[in-house]
Each structure stands twice: as structure tokens, then as C-alpha cells.
Amino acid sequence: MQLPVDEIRAVFLDALSGPAPIIVTAPTGSGKSTRLPLWMADACDSDDKPVLVVEPRRVACRSLAGWLSEQRGEKVGHSIGYRVRFDDRTSNQTKVIFATTGVALRMLAAQQNAKESLFAGVLIDEFHERSWQVDLIAAILLARAKTKRDDCPLVITSATLDVEDLSAQLAAHGLKTHHLEALGRSFPVDISYIDAPAAPAAPSAQGLERRVADAVRQAAQLDSKANHPDDEGGDILVFLPGKGEINGCMQALSKVASQHNLEPVAVHGGLPPDKMKSALAQSKNKRRVYLSTNVAETSVTLPGVTTVIDSGLARMRIHRGGRSALAMVPIAEDSMDQRAGRAGRVRPGRCVRLWSQRFRPSTTTAPEVERIELDDVLLHAGVCGLDGDAFDDAPWVTEPPEFAVAEARRRLIAADALDDQARMTDKGRQLAELPVDGHAARMLISADDTMAGIACDLVALLQLNRGLLGQTNSRDVHHERAALLTGVDNEVYAEIAMLRAGDPQRHGLHASALREARQVATSLREWVGAPILKPTQDTLDFPPTADFARYLLERIPETACVLRERALKKRATKKTPPGQSEPWSNGELELSVWPYDPPRPAEAAVDQKPTDYPVAGLVLDHFWLGDTGIGVRGTGRMLLPCSYAALADAGLGDEAVGKAEMMRKHGAPHIVALVERNLAGVTISAREEALRGPKLFKVVADFILAGRTFPGGLFKGADDKVREDLHLWSLLADWPEPERYWKCEPAPISPHDFLLSKLQTLGLQSAQELALLETDDLRPDLVDLLGITAYDLERFADDFPRHWEHMGHAYICTVQAASRKVVLEPANKKAKKGKDPNPAHLPRFRSFSVYHRKASRIVKLR
């Protein structure tokens, strides 16, 4: 069959022999994803090197590999294969490998130390989607091309790509590009909006199932032969943000489907390959209503679609609370146009947008590297050779924001994943090698036998971004759930119990989610070497909740949250359980969390006692809903309870030291204070303790500067001596050239900051160690610091005193060395009431201009 992209075959094959990266733009359905890989495999023929095709979604990998293999009369994995996470369908004979972005990154990491590329060519498909993995893959390959490290051809394809901008970005890195365009056939699409008073102005999840059902009914009625005799009525494609919304719309469409002979079909990345193949096959008897995530924008081609119903929503990855999360947000204008275009592939079509025409979307979707934290980007870049300066110098299509890079490096250095030069450490490589993101990987590395299995099960469940338990009104299901979850008092252990021993029918579980979670858990258990390799075979008792919470707090402390103070007060006024979501926070983000109620048989509700709901814990999963922006409202799930004490022991929250008391103990100073820890406005710890380390530094500095008396007269007069020294230091540091022959070391900002630094340098750990120090230990050695002689230092001290007193009149002397001025201000009542100082009695001040300031009056004395 002839496809539009076939027109550029000759020029494409010619471009493959050149050094420049090739950019191919062609509409969806024009054949670029199926033709170009095969052309590359033939043109770049190598006995042992396949062509790598990078696809943004696993559904595209599986469907493309399956369709091409079927066309050749082969099984998947022979000459055409795919690799997605935990599913490898390739062999030694495979010449074209379709791989998701995460798998492709691991394959590129494997070739880091190779002298030449492991691939005959690389094609990055649907480049316009611009996930951070796609941008990183491009940077890695372009860096290798720029340094002439290999001659592996690079092809970038897209249906909607700003080629001029991409070419300009690469040209700035000294890389030329070769652009080819294939013009596909498209028909006009009539676009309409829902401007009814009850309809939301912006794309919204509110009442989405009902609005989709109404739009499908109207489309079916409009396409009926009675109204349009010449219209056969094509299939309908509904764009929805996720699997949950797809399931809800499937139920809402049941009546409409039976009335109009429609067949609702789900299309999303979680479908098993056989069901996806069935979904993509054209129906002969019924019009289909495809309920699809944004995989149908570009990743798969659905035959026969003539009507698109667009919710205007998608789940996009953003960063909140120290980790990446999925947020439901309005799509940008470029995605809206892409979705509408799916209605005009076979004949004139229409697109119904479920929002008002008044809504003004963003023009384009920002690349992911501009809107997420970059911890995972730096980790995976590092194992591919782009760490340290190489990361900054890489030919990025979009430069990662400098501030985000700096913050990610700070966190990774603190986690020992990067060294001080931002280069990968062994721990960083361990994190990057695990087939999950960095946040999840931290839960798995260095796990002992008691925690390895449950940690893998937990990570597998978190990958779903949804729970296993479905809604049910069945009394039998409630009985079965209650029997399985006897003694389980939290959502995390309930989900893990269902993962290990649940049955979709008996326990009312989502079958596809359960199957996927078990597959991931098994793979992770094998990866980390857990003692039991399948969750369904794991009959070990769960570790005590407190132990598992401590294990996780060591690895992912940012998930720790507390119930907000206002919710605590609300609970205190009620005798019955809350029965509604409650606000939890870690101080940076706030999440709405539903309290967990263990399933109980209906008859047990009569004797049900109020549940003792937790007030602290780890909120291990969250998602965001936003109708007009990213992350407007956060919802948390998978709450693992813990105690306030566990959070305090983990060092969480802000520490506040109350009024400190100094006393003598065994002849040495002893300093105690009430130390409080507060997390998100809630006090999680309050106890009197002997101060140590940094907490002690601050109090000792306060005591010294306040002139407090230490036991045995320790540090008597240290306040004035330190202040005098710092006054001189500031004067000498500001002294103008060319008179200065000493070093210009900057003076401390304040006496308090200086003492804190000094006490830290001295290694002070406990108040008892103060007895080993003397006042001179706390003073700066200006002779050594500035390289000035002791004699000259004494002269400066005489000529420029910090305090000057004459006949009972005391003054503070502020010296402005750069402008050669001295300002005197009264320091006691006698000076405030007295006359201006007599110039004849003033200190020398080395011919500086001297002023007297009293209240708002300034007088020049000399």
C-alpha cells in the first residue's frame, strides 16, 4: 500500500549517508513510524547492530512491532521486536528494536564505554512530545555526533514540530540538520465548543462522564442515516486524561451504546498486547467509540475515526514535594490541534471540544525539562557519560534551567549520588540502574532480606498511580475483603495484602492493575535479589508498621506528613469518625487525604467502634487536579502511619530552641533548653535536653555577646574584646588603597556569625568542653588573618576606638574608612544630654572628618 511518506524515500536514503541529523516531519498516519525504521535497517545493514526506534509509549512499541512483524509473516522478536519495561521481545536476529524512552536510556548507558555505537541507527519518534527522557536521549546522541565518537545516523520525526526552532537550537551547538517533509492527505475538520451555561469555561474533570455521554449521543444522532442519508457515520474518538476517566465513561456510555449500536473501546498504555491489537482492529458490525488517553494523539493510528470529542485534559508530569507526580491539566493549543486533526484522516470530520470558546490555552506544551525537578535527569545523564561539566556543555535542544540543575545537584550530593564535582558515585549508578525513577529506587537499594520483598511490592503498587480495590456493593466481596485484611489497619498494607493474595473476582480488584503490579513486583524482586521472588508466594508476616515506616523515612523523608492543626481541632470536637478528606502537609505541599477504614461486613457496622485515625505518616503517592493551571489541588493516598517521635528522630521539621538555662554540673558549664520540632505547624517533639553541636553554638554565642556570667568567671569580658577585634577587622578590611599593605580579608557580617563560625571551627560538641577554652580562643588572630604587625594593630586600636569616653560622656564610634569619616553617637544619658564633644579632646582618628550625630541632628566637629 502506498503511503505519503514513500514520496521521500530516495532523498531520505541519500541523507542517511551524510553526517547531519535528519528531521522528518509528516502528519500522523503518513507511515513515518513504519516505513523509516525498515528503510534504515536496509540502508544501515549490519550483521550485529540493530536500528533503535525510540517511542514515547509502550503501546506504540508493541503495536508497531506487532503490525510490522505480521506484515512480514513473522513472530514478534524475530527481525522486528520491542523492549518495554519488564517485557523484552527481541533476539539476536532482531534488526529493528522499538523501545520506550526509559529502556532506550538504559541501552545507551550500556554503550557508554564502547568505542563505537551499538546501533546501526537511531530514530526518535514523536519528538514533539518532549519528555525529559527524549531530550536527554537527543543530547547524548548529539554529543556523540558532535565529538565524532561514532557515525550512527540520527533521525528525528514528528507530526507537529517547530523545525526552524529545533534547527536553530542545534546550530547554536555547531550541528547542522537535514529537514525532510512528507505531506500527508488530510480533510477539513469542523470544530465546535460547548458554550452552554452549565458547561465549564475551561477544560475540567467536573461532570466529565456525563458530558462525554451527551456529546457521544449527539454525535450518533447527527450521523444517523435518517438525518444524513449520504453519511455512513465513522468511528468516534474521545480523548480522556487517564484510565480512571476511561472506566467511568465506559459505564456512562452503556445506555447510549445500546441505543445507537455503538461499541465503546478503551485505548491506553495499560492494555495487554492482545487487547490492544483487538482495539486497533476495525469493527465490521458496529461504530466504535474509542475512549483513549493521549496515546491516540500520535502514538497509534485508529482507523475510520471521523468524530473527535476532546476533554481538553491530560495527565502531565510535574514536580511537587520532592518528587515527580502526575497532574491533570488543560492541554496546550498544539495538542488541541493535533487531537482535532485525527478526525480528518479519511474524510471531512468534526471535533467537539468540551469547554467554552472563551478559554485561552497556552500556545505550546513546555518541554518537560522546564517544568520538573531534574534529579532523575542528572542521574541517567551521568550513567550515560554526561555528568559534571559534560552535562552543562551537552548540546541540549532546550537547556535545563540553571536553578533546577543546581537544586538537583544539591539534593543528589546530599544523597551521595553525586560527588562534590557533580560526578556520579557508585550509589548514584545503583539508583540509575534500577528500572524505576530515582524516588522509587531509593526505597529499594541496600534493602535487607526483611524489607526487600515488601519494598518491591510497594514500589510496584506505586507505579500504578491507582489502587487495586474497585468499588463494589457486593456483601460477599466485603466479607472476603474483611477476611483477607484481618488485623490490617492501614491502606499500604491493605494494598500489599491484595497484591500478594487478592483475587479479582472474590475481592473486587482491578484485574489488569493487579496483573501489572504482580509482574512489576516480580521483576523488582529478581532485580534486588529478594529472598522470595514472587509476591504471590510471599506468605511472610508484614514487618511492624513502625519498623517499615522507619525504613522508608531513612530513604524518602520528603513523603513524611502530619495532619494539619485545623483538622486536629476538628477531630477533637467530633465523636464520630471524620468521614471526609483531611488536610495533610509536610511543610511544602498540602494534600487532601481520605482516612483509611478497614473493610467490614455490613452486619459488623452496628458494633463498629470509632477508628483511631493516624495524625502522622508517610503519604507515599499523590496526584494533582487543576482546571486552570498545574497542581491546583493535591490528593494523597497510600498513607503509612507513624508516630510524631519517628518523624522527630528522622530529623524532620524545623527545630526551635526555647529559653536556655546555664548551670554548673560536676564543676563544668551545663546548658539545657526546651527543644521543639515543628512540621507544617504541628509540634512533633518537645523535650528538655542538654544542648549539643549547632544548637549549642547559637546559645553560647548569645550568652557571650549578652555578657552572661559563665561558671568560674569563664569568658569574662569576652564580649567587649571580640567586638573590639571585629571593629578593627572591619576598619582594616575597608581601608583604601594604596595605603594598605595588609591583606584585605572580608570582615564577618556580625559578631554572632563570627562566634558561631569560631565555635564550629573549635569543634565544640558539649557545654562541658567550654571549660577547656579561654577568651583568647574566641578572638580572631588579626595579625595572622590580615598579615599586619602587632605594633600597627595597636596603633589602629588607639587611633580608632570602638567606644570613646571623656568626662563620663560615652560615645559609639562608627568608622567609614573608604570615605575617611567617623560618626560619633551618644552611648549613655550624660552624652545624650550634654553638648557636642570638644574637638580638642577627640582621639586621633588619623585626620578623618569627624561628625557628631544626636537624634536627627548632625554636626561636623573637625
Short key terms for the protein model shown above:
862 residues, alpha/beta, Rossmann fold, 6 domains, 8-stranded mixed sheet, 6-stranded parallel sheet, globular
Question: Mind explaining what this structure looks like?
Answer:
The chain is of the alpha/beta class. It has six domains: 4-181, Rossmann fold, CATH 3.40.50.300; 189-363, 3-Layer(aba) Sandwich (Rossmann fold), CATH 3.40.50; 366-439; 554-650, no CATH class; 653-776, no CATH class; 801-861, no CATH class. It contains 31 helices and 29 strands. The strands form five sheets. Strands 4-3-5-2-6-7-1-8 form an eight-stranded mixed beta sheet, sandwiched between helices. A six-stranded parallel beta sheet has the order 9-16-13-10-12-11, sandwiched between helices. It has a five-stranded mixed barrel with strand order 17-18-19-21-20. A hairpin with a 2-residue loop joins strand 25 (803-806) and strand 26. The longest helix is centred in the middle third of the chain and has 18 residues, at 511-528. The radius of gyration is 35 Å and the shape is globular. It starts with 8 loop residues before the first helix and ends with a strand.
Note the main sheet. 8 strands, mixed
CATH superfamily of the largest domain: P-loop containing nucleotide triphosphate hydrolases
Number of domains: 6
Shape: globular
Let me know the average pLDDT: 88
CATH fold-type name of the largest domain: Rossmann fold
In whole angstroms, the N-to-C terminal distance is: 100 Å
Can you summarize this structure?
With 862 residues, the protein is an alpha/beta fold. The protein has an eight-stranded mixed sheet, sandwiched between helices.
